[in-house]
Amino acid sequence: MLTLQYLPYDQIRNLSSETRIKKLINLVKENKILLLEGKLNPFEEAKLIEKTMEQISKRFKGIEICTVYPENKNIEMFGKLRNEILRLLGHRQGLTIIGPATIVKEIKRDPNKIELLTKPLRK
Amino acid sequence: MGFLDFINNFFNGFFQKKKHVRLGIYGPTNSGKSTLANRICRDWIGEELSTVSNIPHETREINVKERVTVKSDGKKLTFNIIDTPGIATKIDYEDFLKFKLSPKEAKERAREATKGVIESIRWLENVDSVIVVLDATKNPYSQVNITIIGNLAARNIPVIIAANKVDLKKANIEKVRSAFPQYGVVGISAEFGNNMEDFYKSLVKLV
Questions:
Q1: What are the CA-CA distances from residue B158 to residues A102, B83, B150, B176, B178 (Å)?
Q2: pLDDT for B74-101, tens place per residue?
Q3: What is the pTM of this model?
Q4: Contact at 8 Å (CB) between B99 and B55?
Q5: From the CB of residue B13, how many other CB atoms can be counted at a distance below 10 Å?
Q6: Which residues in chain A are closer than 8 Å to B180, comparing Cβ atoms?
Q7: Closest in A50, A82, A108 to B118, CB measured
């Protein structure tokens, strides 16, 4: 069974970056695909990868992650993305999808669409 | 010690301590970072820096070559080149079994690869300029690419994107350019040396 969990930004807003990342990884390790309102800042994204690597094991192979922005309608989004990143504001805009690599094979992003490909579940 | 010795030592110390630009080579796994590092080192100092292979995560430690001098357009640039392990969000030792590694070798490689990714991320603090190497045959809109470039932008580190593997039919430099329109993108083949002159020109300009 595939579990999708929506995580409103309010639930992580007051957490420190470290606790926020820990919470996200713990939820993903429960084999849930998270739909997080908003996005992490670039430093947190890097930290998320770093912390994920520290926890790789036989059962936890890592994550698939993708951030979707409201401007995701055309290729100009990356110009806008850069400005957003530089300002490090607007965390509540957009949606971040994070899933365990054992379940989510790939999240394909093109400017106009997102495809989430899952792996067949092992019995 | 005489006054002249003092002056001598002062200036020697001053110039010895002069730091060269630390040029990081970043990117996702198997994009050709080490192939490019080797190409640059071979072209300018006649020796290689890293081992390369088709198996992902071949580079699992930071490799540094000091004092590489590139000349282009009458300008000269000396830097320390830092070849980093590829950044990934997942590592499964079973993926390495497909490359005929034994389970023990695959597990060891996976363990080292996770450390390599961590090291790469931590080294972002220690680079002055970066070449982001992307595989031009692959979709550039991956979160790893965005995270790398986003981190460099947030740190105000100058970036040049090398859209590698342009010798392959599937390569699409324009797609890389449209994904990152605010950056200079140079299409190259690090393996065969295609378009390296343009690449060196952009590199010298960047730094």
A1: 36, 16, 12, 17, 19
A2: 999 999 999 999 999 999 999 999 998 9
A3: 0.86
A4: yes
A5: 10
A6: 78
A7: A50
